[in-house]
Amino acid sequence: MLSLKIENLAVAFPGLTAPVLAIDHLEIAAGSGVALTGGSGSGKSTLINIIAGLERTRAGHVFWGDQNFADLSEGRRDRWRAANIGLVMQDFHLFPGLSAIDNILLPARLSRVVTADLVKRAHMLFQTVGLKRPEQHVETMSRGEMQRVAIARALLRKPGVIIADEPTASLDLESGEAVGDLLLSVAADAGSTLIVASHDPRLIERLGRRLSLKGGQIVGDTQTGEMAA
Amino acid sequence: MIRFILADLRRLWLGGAVVVLLVALATALGVAVTLQERSLRLGSARAADKFDLIVGAAGSETQLVLSSIFLQAAPLPLIDGSVLTKLSADPRVDWAAPIGFGDSFAGYPIIGTTTKLVAGTTPGFAEGRMFALEGEAVLGATVNLPLGAEIKPMHGTAETGGHTHAGQAYKVTGKLRPTGTPWDRAILVPIQAVWHVHGLGEEHGHEEEHRNGDGHHHAHEGKEHHEDGETHVEGETEEHATPVAEIPAVQPAKPAFALGAASSAHIEEDHHGSIDPDALIVETFGPSTPGLPAILVKPKTIADAYRLRQEYRTGSTLGVFPGEVLTRLYATLGDAKMILSAVAAGSQGLVAAALVLVTVIHVGQRRRQIGALRAFGAPRLSVFTIVWLELFLLVALGIGIGFLIGLAAAQIGAQLFAAKSGVILPVGFTREDLRLALVFLGFAAILAAVPALLAYRQSPATALRA
After folding, report:
1. Do the Cβ atoms of A54 and B464 come within 8 Å?
2. What distance lies between CA B453 and its chain's CA centroid?
3. Taking CB atoms and an 8 Å cutoff, what residues of chain B touch A87?
C-alpha cells in the first residue's frame, strides 16, 4: 500500500541525444491499479525498471511513500525492492530444477528472511493461485501454471506494490485471462498498488487508470472503469 | 541457497562433470609425482636402514650400494677375503658379514651370507629355521617357494644367459618375515656354499682338482705362463696385481661372484665345485677366505662407523654409508622431480585458464538468470556467493578426487615397483600434502571469485534485457 510520486525524472542513455524517458510529474495513489501502455521504444520498460528500482535514478526523484529511490545505494535499493515490490515478468524467470514451492521461497531464502510463517504463507499462496502440487518441478508445468507460481512468488512478502511487465503476453488467451483475473484479485485482496505494463486490451480495461507513453513522454492519462476505487 | 546451487549443478551436471574431471586429472598428476618421489625416497632409505657400513672393492660407490642393498645384478670388483678376516677381528666391529651374489634361482637372487647377517637384518622367521648346513637355504618373505623345496642355483640369471650349476641343490629350511626391502626377494644361503659351488674356499680343496683338470691357470703356474708370453685373459693379469699374495690359489676365480654373463664367460667352464650339503657351516673366516663383492659391517658406535669408513676408503677397498650414497642419488632424483613438478604445474595452469574461460562464458550465458535473481530480491552478496560456491564446489571436488586418483596412481606405481624390486614404497599423505591441498583450494577460491565478481557487478536491468 504505497503511493508513487515521480518528479522531474529524466533517463538518458549515453549516445542518445533525446532522453528515453522524461516525466515531470506523476502520482499514483496507494492501492490503485494502473495500466502502462505504449509501443516499443515508448519508454515503458525503462519506467518499469525505474519504479522497480532495477535501474538507478540519476536525475529527478522517485518516491514510494516517503522513500526516494534516488537516495538509495544499489544494495539498499535491492533490499527495499525485495521487501516492498512484487515483480511479475513476461518470462516468469522461474528456476528450473527447483519445485514450485521452492521457487516461491527462493528470493526470501536468498535474502535469509524465511521463517516458518513465511513457509506457511507460501503454501497458502500456492493454493490461492489455484495450484495443487507444491513439489512439482517448475519445468514440468504449463506456461499458465508457471505464471501463477511467479505471482505467488511476487506476493510472498506482502508487497505494497505489484509491478507486472506484460504478465499475459506469453500466455494463450484462456490462461492469460485467468492470470489477469488472478493478478487483479490478489492485488485487491492485499490492497497493493498494481502497475501493469501490457498490450492486452482486456487486462487494460479492467484497471482503473491507463497511462499511455510515447517517445519517453506520458501522452495519455485516463481513468477507465471498474477498478477505480 | 545450497538447494538452489545443487539444483543448478544437477541441471548443468555434464559441464560440471567435465570441470571436475579436468581439475581431478591436473591435480592427480601433481600429487602422484610428489607421492611417488617421496615414497621412493622413504622406501629406499628404509631398505638401506639396516646397512650401516658396506665395504667393497674400490670402484663405484653407487653400484656397490645398488648391488648389495637393492640386489641389482651387475659385475662388481672383488675385495680380498682377508678384509673380512680383519674386520671380523676388529674390536670396533660388532659383526661383519660377507654378501656374495652371482647366482639366481627362478629369477630370485641367491645371496651367500652368514647367520649373523640374517639375524641382524631381518625381523625373524615366519616359518622354519635358519640354515645350519651347507646345503640349506632361507627364503626372503616374497620368494614363492615352499619349505623343503629344492633350489638349483643358476649362474647369473636366465635373461643374461646363465647356466645351471649341475648337481647342486639347496634345501629350503626357513622363510623370513617381510622386511620391505629387496632382500625379501632373495634366497639366502651360507656363503661357504656359494664358494664351494664356484669351486672356491679352502675346506675341501675341490678347486685344486678342477683347475688342474682344465689345464690352465693353477695359480702357481700363473707366473710361468706369463714369462712364457702366453696370452692370458685380461682379468687374470689384473688379479695377479692385487696386493694379496698369500692366497694366490683363489685369485683367478674372483669374477665368478660378479653377476652377468660377460664377466663370467671366461670362467664358466673351469671351476665348478660342488657343495657338501651335510657339512656344518663355518663362520669364522680365516686367512684363505676367498674374494668377496661386499661386506656388511655393523660398527659398535657411530664414531666407530666413521673411523672404519675412513680406514677402508683407502687403496683397494671402499667403505660407504649407504644412506649417504642414497642421499646423493636423491639429489639427482630431486632434479627429475622438479622437472616433473614443473610439467604438472604447467598442466594445472592450463586447466585453471580453461576454467576461467569456461566460467566467464558460463556467467555470460546466465546473465538473465542472475539478473532475475537480483530483480526478485536476492542480495548482491547472495548472487556472488552462489556463483562462487558453485564453481568452488566443482573445483574442490575435482581437487579431492584428484588427490585420491594421485594416491591410487602412486600406490599402483609402488606396487609395480615392489613386485619388480622388492622395495616396499610407503605411499601416504603428510602434512606437506595438506598444505598443497590448502594452496590448491585457496587458488580455487580465487579462481571462482572471477565469475562471481562479474555476476556481482552486473546490473539487474541490463542483465534482464539481454
Report:
1. yes
2. 50
3. 375-376
User: Any idea what the Cα angle at residue B79 is, between residues B78 and B80, rounded to 5°?
Assistant: 120
Q: Could you tell me the end-to-end alpha-carbon distance of chain A, in angstroms, rounded to an integer?
A: 14
Beta strands in B307-361 (DSSP E): 317-320
Task: Give kind and range of the element (H or E) at residue B237.
Answer: helix B234-241
Q: pLDDT tens digit string along B417-458?
A: 877 777 778 888 888 888 888 998 998 898 888 888 888 887
Cβ(B110)–Cβ(B156) under 8 Å? no
Residue B360, amino acid: V
Bridge partners for B324 per DSSP = none
In this structure, are residues A213 and A44 in contact, taking their beta carbons and an 8 Å threshold?
A: yes
Interface of A with B (CB under 8 A): 45, 49, 52, 54-55, 74-75, 78-79, 81-83, 87, 89, 93, 95-98, 102, 106-111, 153, 157
C-alpha distances out from residue B205 to B154, B198, B222, B285, B420, Å = 22, 12, 18, 16, 39
pLDDT band at residue B116 using 50, 70 and 90 as cut-offs:
confident
Per-residue pLDDT of chain A (229 residues; tens, 9 = 90+): 788 999 888 888 888 778 888 989 999 998 889 999 988 888 888 899 899 888 888 888 899 988 888 888 888 888 888 889 999 988 888 888 889 999 999 888 888 888 999 999 999 988 888 888 989 998 899 988 999 999 999 989 889 999 999 898 888 888 888 889 888 988 888 889 999 999 888 888 888 899 999 988 889 888 875 544 4
CA angle B391, B397, B402 (to 5 degrees): 125
Cβ contact (<8 Å) for A78 and B464?
no
- ipTM, two decimals: 0.83
Coil/strand/helix, residue B254: helix
Separation CA B2–CA B188 (nearest Å): 63
C-alpha B167/C-alpha A94 separation (Å) is: 88
Distance CA B138, CA B125 (A): 9
> Do B317 and B77 touch, CB atoms closer than 8 A?
no
3-class DSSP string for chain A: CCCEEEEEEEECCCCCCCCCEEEEEEEECCCCEEEEECCCCCCHHHHHHHHCCCCCCCEEEEEECCEEHHHCCHHHHHHHHHHHEEEECCCCCCCCCCEHHHHHHHHHHHCCCCCHHHHHHHHHHHHHCCCCCCCCEHHHCCHHHHHHHHHHHHHCCCCCEEEEECCCCCCCHHHHHHHHHHHHHHHHHHCCEEEEECCCHHHHCCCCEEEEEECCEEEEEEECCCCCC
Give the closest residue to A151 by CA, choosing from A172, A174, A130. A130
Residue B337 has which C-alpha cell? 622431480
Q: What percent of chain B has pLDDT above 90? A: 5
Distances (CA, A) of A33 to A40, A68, B308: 22, 21, 104
Cβ of A96 and B369 within 8 Å? no
List of domains in chain A = 4-223 (3.40.50.300)
Alpha-carbon dihedral A93, A99, A104, A108, rounded to 10 degrees: -100
Contact B423, B142 (CB under 8 A): no
* Whether the Cβ atoms of residue A195 and residue A34 lie closer than 8 Å to each other: yes
Residues of B whose CB is below 8 A from A49 = 461
Q: What is the DSSP string of B21-46?
A: HHHHHHHHHHHHHHHHHHHHHHHHHH
Q: What count of Cα atoms within 13 Å lies in the side-chain half-sphere of residue A38?
A: 27
Give residue for cell 479492467: A206
Strand ranges across the sheet with A59-64: A21-28, A4-11, A59-64, A67-68
Closest residue in A to B6 (Cα) is A97
- Determine if the pTM surpasses 0.90: no
Residues forming beta bridges with residue A33, ordered by sequence position: A194
Helices A100-110 and A143-155 sit at what angle, rounded to 10 degrees? 30
